[in-house]
Structure formats: structure tokens, C-alpha cells
Design goal:
- The complex is a heterodimer of chains A (660) and B (163).
- Chain A is of the alpha+beta class and 660 residues long.
- Helices cover 63% and strands 12% of the residues of chain A.
- Chain A has a five-stranded antiparallel sheet, with no helix packed on it. A four-stranded antiparallel sheet of chain A has the order 2-10-9-8, with no helix packed on it.
- With 163 residues, chain B is α+β, with helices and mostly antiparallel strands.
- The longest helix of chain B is centred in the N-terminal third of the chain and has 30 residues.
- Chain B folds into two domains: 32 residues; 109 residues, Nucleic acid-binding proteins (OB fold (Dihydrolipoamide Acetyltransferase, E2P), Beta Barrel), CATH 2.40.50.
- In chain B, a hairpin with a 4-residue loop joins strand 4 and strand 5.
- The radius of gyration of chain B is 26 Å and the shape is elongated.
- Classes of the chains: A alpha+beta (660), B alpha+beta (163).
- At the A-B interface, helix 13, strand 1, helix 14, helix 15 and strand 2 of A face helix 1, strand 1 and helix 3 of B.
- Chain A: One of its GO terms (biological process) is cytochrome complex assembly.
């Protein structure tokens, strides 16, 4: 019964979002506040309906209701509870439901935040948001209904893909989707501004927190996905330039550019047209990512099922929204007023350069991801574009950006002084160079990339801290006063310093991968295998049975210089229902470094094949991303973000609409 | 804060715009150059064993070889050396690989190997991929086999789903 109610709630949400789409738009055309006020109400109702549907599906999973096809295909009565819950979005239908749930959740927040958003803008924004919800609800109801029944109900389910039976599934998709879908709000705001033909610094202030939130979540989501792939797939790699990964990287790059260009727009009322375009492109890339992952164009662990009908439908959504918004842009953008001017050497100029590099880097990822698909469609030739391509194109575009980043942070608004900026960075630059030389001296046999990358990362971190120090430091000043001054700086200044330092951490982590050591060997019990400064000794192999899998557990003792540091377990599993084998890597963390053990086959002579990795500083890659997101979150708590909009609207009494 | 005097030269709006366009042109030009260069150098083609013969692929070429692992062809030796044959409907190519094979590697399974064809006709693989799903057939392999009228994997998969 609950299942049918869930299905009905989805249909109801479809109807309501149609109202939410049409009535407010009509209201803003007719300048009717009553019609406009329909938007927040329906947005909340849509949210309630979709949330109910989501709960209904979750209940079906938790209670193992095998009369529901989706549950049969992706669950099993013996599956642990946590995977029964996360399994709700571990399949195509459920993950699309999560997608619209988050979409309507953002709509709901815009609806509640009525005090800080002018009514016209809110109505238009929610209408655009409703159009997206409408399209995806139609997609779910016509091609991907999670509530389909199966008659007769089988006794048990087919279990979830074992690779997805992991805590990562509980965390990675929700974070990623909040990021992807969060950009729909900036998109909706951009379209709303274009519809009304008015855009100014107030718009930027309203949009910025949303963009920043989406960006921070997307950062975490990508990092989480990368760490999950690292420990689950057993190849020891953290980024494969897989099209599915690129699909999330592209909106991240565009979103990062957007976060920066809205700063220029907010502070200097400049770059308006570009910011609007970027907001549209960022969400378009999110949609493209959804299409690539969900349509089955790519085969990967993410595309749960291949169904051409679905692919065509999402492609349709893609064309309508990207085409529609770009047409709206082409029609309306020329009417937008140009903003303030600035010298090329200035903070604005630096941010333009940032946008230029990020957008270009994003374009190379776009080409590398879509070119093979396009070629296959046109000629049938199958090619693969992998790491070498991106190392040659993406990396040379990102490195100069990172090198210039600290200089940009130091430049003044409107008209900067490059020499002065460089002077303020002498200390950071000197220390980073010194560190590069020291690291190189100690590891001169090793790869050159590592010390250089570590120097770059250090420069980024020191350059960011430098910004805080120079803004609070006075020669011979009182220590207490300086500290007060430093902590009195706006939170957004701290947030940006921390986020950029996070970039530095990630760069150091990536650079250190050049020092990775990998050993391949076969071991019998008691035998040892060395990897870098460490050794692993195979203790025993023990078979074990769990609820839904059997496994052989190999226990290894890790030693350094003959000293035992502890043991790691690594498993080879066979998931009974699907008859599918998986390996679980054994990982020992030492500070920021890891020793990583992956099991292979039992050899003809009875020994155990094994791959060992020593990965120095590898945790910094993901830690850096977490620090970036934390910087973004700190910026969000800035006073300006919270009170700016109402303060500004008080200064604009000419608004013909009654304030909410 | 600095002792430098600000420069007094002012750029006109037009000059500013030109600076911007020049900068954008530079970055885009460099990016385009990199992409074109990388396209020539780093892209790998996919070949089935039949393609290798039909296209007369030269030894020393790097490419991705896809097909089915021939039944009874897998021979393991010490040091985790594995030799097996990858076949399609028409021909088979011997593959040598050292390292851990993916969990789903088994005889009769579709795989994609990346590596170099040696003069002896042996394909030296440095990575072997099988996919994360028991019904999985790499898409390239499936297409190649379907062209040769040899694969009914989808029907098999859907039968399993119905069970």
C-alpha cells in the first residue's frame, strides 16, 4: 500500500511542479504578488511529496518487500541494514529519486528563505527550478519507476552489486548529488535574472552562498568517490580519468570558476554577463554528467543498467535545458548593463585569469571525455583517451594557474601592483624554493616531479597564510592587537585562505604519488615481501562466512626495520547470491602515508599472489579536498552572506513590489 | 603598504578589452595546441584479434585488445606470469601479462587488455581489465562479437533477471 502511495506522491509532485512552473511565471509577467506567492507554497508541497515517495521506497528496502521489482533486483534479505538503506540509491531508479529529492529540497530552502530574496526573483527562480523537477519527475515516472511491482513476488532478491556494498555508497552519492543539483539553483537564479533582464551585485550576493554550498559538497563528493575507488577497486589508484570521474570534474571546474566570478560581481559589479553564462554552463555540465552516467553511454560501475529509452529521454532533457537557457542568454544578455571597469593587473584581472584557465582546463576535459563518444558515433572507430592525454593537456593548464594563484590573492581590487604583490610574497616564495631544494637534495635519485610539486603546494599554503598575516601584521606592533586584527578579518577572507591552502595540500599529496613504491610477489605463510621501507609477512589465511558472502582472510604483519607495527587483513570474497568475487584491500595508515595490500590468485605452487604499495603522504590528496570544503563552509558563515540581501533591499525602496 | 608609486597610465576601455581578448587568445591557443598534439600521441585504438589481422597492426604499436579469454588457454607460471589467448570468432592472439589479474578474470570471460604487440606476435599487456559485474561484457568486446554474430549475452542477462 505504501508503495502505491509513494508512486502516487511522485505523480502528485509532477502535477504540483507544473503549477509551480507556470503560475509564478505568469505572476511575474502580470506583476501579481498573489500568483507569485504560489511559488514558495508549491515548492514546499513538491518537497513533501517527493520526500514521502523516498521514504516509501526506503521502507520497502528495509522491510525487504520483494513484491517491488527494484528491491528484488538490488537487495537481499541477508544484506546488512546499512546497505539496505544505502541500496535505495545504489541503482538507477533510486538514484534518480534521490536526485529529484535533493532538487526539491533546494527548492524548499529557496522557498523558506523568502526574507532574503526579492519576491520577483524568488518566483522566477522557483519556476525554473520547477521546470527541472518536472522534467526529471517525468523521466522517473515514464522510464524509471522505482515502484514497479513484480508478480509473483520472488522469495528473495538478487542482492546489490558487491562493489557497492560499502560505506562509500552511503556517503558518496548524496554528497555528489547535493553538489550537482545545488548548481541548479545558481542556474535557476541566472535564468530568472535573464527573464527579468535585471542583474546586479544584489543578485550576486544572493546567489553566492548557494554556489558555494554546491561547490563545497561537490568537492567532498568527488574526494569521497576518489577515496572509495582507491580502497575498493584494489588498483591503488585514486584517479583514473574515467569518463564518469570526468563527468563530475567538469562541473567542479566550472563551479570553481563560478564561485570566483561571483566574487567579482558582488564586490565590483563587474563580469555580469560572464557570470550568468558560467552559471548556466556549470549546471549544463552537471546535466551532461547525469546523462553520461545514467544513460548507459558509458559502461561503468555507475551505469547500473543500459537502456536506450532512458538515454534518449535524458538527452532530450539536456537539449531542452541547455539549449533553452543558452537561447535565453543569447536573447537577453545584450540588454544587461556592463559593470565596473578595472585594470588588467588587479584582483579582478587575476580572477578573470583564474576563470580563463579553469574554463579552458574544463574544455580539455570535455574534449577528452566526449571525443571518443563522438568519434564512435560518427565513424564506429573505438578509441580510448586516458591519463597520457590529460597529463599533456589538463596538467599544463592547471600548473600555471596554481603558480599564479598566490599572486592573485595578494593583488588589490581595481588597480593592483604586481611588483608590490611579488614583494609581499618574497618570504613564501623563498621558503617554498628552499623546501624544494632540500627535498630534492634528500631524494635526488627519485623523480623530479615530487620535489617540484611539493614546492608548489607549499607555495600555495604559505601564500594563503601570507594573505592573513599581511592583513593583520604591523611592524613592531602589539602581538595581542595583531591577533585580534587577524581574527577580526572577515570569515570569507579566512575561508578563502583555508580553501586555497587545501589546494596546496592536495597538490603535495598528488606530487608525492611520484614516490609510490609497488611490489609484486608471491608469499607462503611466514614469508616476507618488502615495499619501500616496509616489509609485510604473511601470517595466515583463514576462511570465514558472513551473512551474504564467503571470504578468505589473509593476515599480514607489517614491519619496519625488523620492528612489528601491527597487522592488516585483506580479503578475497565471494558474494553468494551473484556468484561474484571481489577483493578487499588491506590498508595500514602511518601518519599521512599508507601501506596498501591487494590480494591476487593462489599460485600453482600454493603460494599467494600479492601486490603491495607504499604510498607516502597519499592521505593529503583527500584531506586537501576536505580542507577546501571546510574553507568554503567557513566563507558561508560570513556576516555578509547572511545579512547582505535584506540590508541591500532596504537601500532600494524603489522596488515596486511589497516586501514579504 | 608598499613603497611603489601606483602607475598613472590609464587604459581605455577598448585597450582593456583587447588585453583580455589577447590573454584569452593565448590561453585558448596553447590549450588547442596541447589538445591537438595529445590527440596524435596519446590516443589508443581498440582492436579485436580479427582487427589486428585485418588492419595489419604493426609490432610495437600500443593499443587495446579485446575479446574472450580462450577456454583452456590460461597458463600461470611463477612470478605471477600469465599467458592466455584472447579470441574472437575468427582468430586468437596470445597475451602475456605479469601481475594481479582482476577478480572477474576467467576463461570464457570478455576482457580488455592494454599493451604492445611484439614482433613475435605476442601481445604484451601491462593492464588487463574485466568488469565489475557478473553479466559484464566490455562494451567494445560485445560490439565486436555482435558484428561477427557471436554474442547472445544480453539475452542471457535478461533471462537471469527474469529468474
Amino acid at each position: 500500500m505504501l508503495v502505491e502511495a509513494g508512486h502516487f506522491a511522485l505523480a502528485l509532485a509532477l502535477g504540483l511542479s507544473l503549477i509551480q512552473f507556470i503560475v509564478p511565471l505568469w505572476g511575474t509577467r502580470a506583476n501579481d504578488p498573489v500568483l507569485m506567492s504560489v511559488a514558495p507554497t508549491t515548492a514546499l508541497a513538491v518537497l513533501a511529496c517527493i520526500a514521502f515517495a523516498f521514504v516509501a521506497l526506503t521502507v520497502a528496502y528495509v522491510t525487504s518487500d520483494f513484491s517491488v521489482l527494484n528491491v528484488v533486483e538490488n537487495s537481499h534479505s541477508t544484506k546488512p541494514l546499512i546497505y539496505k538503506i544505502s541500496g535505495v540509491w545504489g541503482n538507477h531508479e533510486g538514484s534518480m529519486l534521490l536526485w529529484v529529492l535533493i532538487l526539491s529540497f533546494f527548492g524548499g530552502i529557496v522557498a523558506i528563505a523568502r526574507d532574503s530574496i526579492p519576491a520577483r526573483l524568488q518566483a522566477n527562480t522557483l519556476a525554473i527550478q520547477a521546470a527541472i523537477t518536472l522534467a526529471f519527475l517525468a523521466f522517473i515516472l515514464t522510464t524509471s519507476n522505482p515502484f514497479d511491482r513484480v508478480v509473483p513476488a520472488p522469495a528473495d532478491g538478487q542482492d546489490l552489486n558487491p562493489l557497492l556494498q560499502d560505506l562509500g555508497l552511503a556517503i558518496h552519492p548524496p554528497l555528489l548529488y547535493v553538489g550537482y543539483v545545488g548548481f541548479s539553483i545558481s542556474f535557476a537564479f541566472a535564468c530568472a535574472a535573464l527573464i527579468d533582464g535585471r542583474i546586479d551585485a544584489v543578485w550576486a550576493r544572493i546567489v553566492r552562498p548557494w554556489t558555494l554550498t554546491a561547490w563545497a559538497f561537490l568537492t567532498l563528493g568527488i574526494a569521497m568517490g576518489s577515496y572509495w575507488a582507491y580502497y575498493e577497486l584494489g588498483w591503488g589508484g585514486w584517479w583514473f580519468w574515467d569518463p564518469v570521474e570526468n563527468a563530475s570534474l567538469m562541473p567542479w571546474l566550472a563551479g570553481t570558476a563560478l564561485v570566483h566570478s561571483t566574487v567579482v560581481m558582488e564586490k565590483r559589479d563587474s563580469l555580469k554577463v560572464w557570470t550568468i553564462l558560467l552559471a548556466i554552463l556549470t549546471f549544463s555540465l552537471s546535466l551532461l554528467g547525469t546523462f553520461l552516467v545514467r544513460s548507459g553511454v558509458l559502461t561503468s560501475v555507475h551505469s547500473f543498467a543500459v537502456d536506450p529509452e532512458r538515454g534518449t529521454f535524458i538527452l532530450g532533457i539536456l537539449v531542452v535545458f541547455i539549449g533553452g537557457s543558452l537561447a535565453l542568454f543569447a536573447w537577453r544578455a545584450p540588454r544587461l548593463q556592463q559593470g565596473g571597469v578595472f585594470a588588467p593587473i588587479s584582483r579582478e584581472g587575476a580572477l578573470v585569469l583564474n576563470n580563463l584557465f579553469l574554463a579552458t582546463a574544463c574544455a580539455t576535459v570535455f574534449i577528452g571525455t566526449l571525443y571518443p563518444l563522438a568519434l564512435e558515433v560518427m565513424t564506429g572507430e573505438k578509441i580510448s583517451v586516458g591519463e597520457p592525454f590529460f597529463n599533456l593537456t589538463f596538467v599544463p593548464l592547471i600548473v600555471p594557474l596554481l603558480l599564479l594563484l598566490p599572486f592573485g590573492q595578494t593583488l588589490a581590487w581595481k588597480r593592483g601592483n604586481l611588483l608590490g604583490a611579488a614583494q609581499r610574497l618574497y618570504a613564501a616564495l623563498g621558503l617554498s624554493l628552499l623546501l624544494t631544494i632540500v627535498v630534492f637534495a634528500f631524494t635526488h635519485d627519485g623523480p623530479v616531479a615530487a620535489p617540484l610539486g611539493i614546492g608548489l603546494g607549499t607555495f600555495l599554503i604559505l601564500g594563503s597564510l601570507n594573505e592573513i598575516v599581511t592583513r593583520s601584521w604591523t611592524k613592531g606592533g602589539d602581538w595581542a592587537v595583531m591577533r585580534r586584527k587577524a581574527f577580526g578579518l572577515p570569515r570569507s577572507a579566512w575561508g578563502s585562505a583555508i580553501a586555497h591552502a587545501g589546494v596546496g595540500l592536495t597538490v603535495i599529496g598528488i606530487a608525492a604519488t611520484a614516490w609510490d613504491v609497488e611490489t609484486l610477489g608471491t608469499l607462503r605463510s611466514g614469508e616476507r615481501l618488502g615495499v619501500g621501507p616496509y616489509e609485510a609477512r604473511l601470517e595466515r589465511i583463514v576462511p570465514r562466512r558472513e551473512a551474504n558472502f564467503r571470504e578468505d582472510v589473509a593476515t599480514l604483519t607489517i614491519l619496519r626495520g625488523g620492528q612489528e607495527l601491527g597487522t592488516v587483513d585483506t580479503m578475497k570474497r565471494l558474494y553468494v547470491t551473484r556468484g561474484m568475487p571481489t577483493t578487499e584491500a588491506g590498508i595500514m595508515t602511518r601518519g599521512l602515508s599508507q601501506i596498501y595490500v591487494s590480494l591476487g590468485e593462489i599460485q600453482p605452487d600454493g603460494s599467494l599472489g600479492m601486490r603491495l604499495y607504499y604510498k607516502p603522504l597519499v592521505l593529503l590528496i583527500w584531506l586537501g579536498a576536505v580542507v577546501m570544503a571546510a574553507g568554503g563552509a567557513l566563507s558561508l558563515t560570513d556576516r555578509r552572506m547572511r545579512i547582505a540581501a535584506p540590508a541591500k533591499s532596504r537601500r532600494l525602496p524603489a522596488n515596486p513590489l511589497p516586501a514579504e | 603598504m608598499t613603497t611603489q608609486t601606483p602607475r598613472t597610465r590609464r587604459l581605455t576601455r577598448k585597450q582593456r578589452r583587447l588585453t583580455l581578448i589577447a590573454a584569452a587568445g593565448c590561453v585558448l591557443g596553447v590549450a588547442l595546441g596541447l589538445v591537438l598534439y595529445a590527440m596524435n600521441d596519446t590516443i589508443l585504438f581498440f582492436n579485436s584479434p580479427a582487427d589486428v589481422q585485418a588492419r595489419n597492426v604493426q609490432p610495437g604499436t600500443r593499443f587495446r585488445l579485446g575479446g574472450l579469454v580462450k577456454e583452456g588457454s590460461v597458463k600461470r607460471s611463477d612470478g605471477q606470469q600469465v599467458v592466455f589467448e584472447v579470441m574472437d570468432a575468427q582468430s586468437a592472439i596470445p597475451v602475456r601479462y605479469q601481475g594481479l589479474l582482476p577478480d572477474l578474470f576467467r576463461e570464457g570471460q570478455g576482457i580488455v587488455a592494454e599493451g604492445v604487440l611484439e614482433a613475435s606476435g605476442v601481445f604484451r599487456a601491462d593492464s588487463v581489465l574485466a568488469k565489475h559485474d557478473e553479466n559484464y561484457m566490455p562494451r567494445e568486446v560485445a560490439d565486436a562479437l555482435r558484428r561477427q554474430g557471436h554474442w547472445q549475452g544480453e539475452e542471457k542477462a535478461s533471462q537471469q533477471a527474469e529468474q
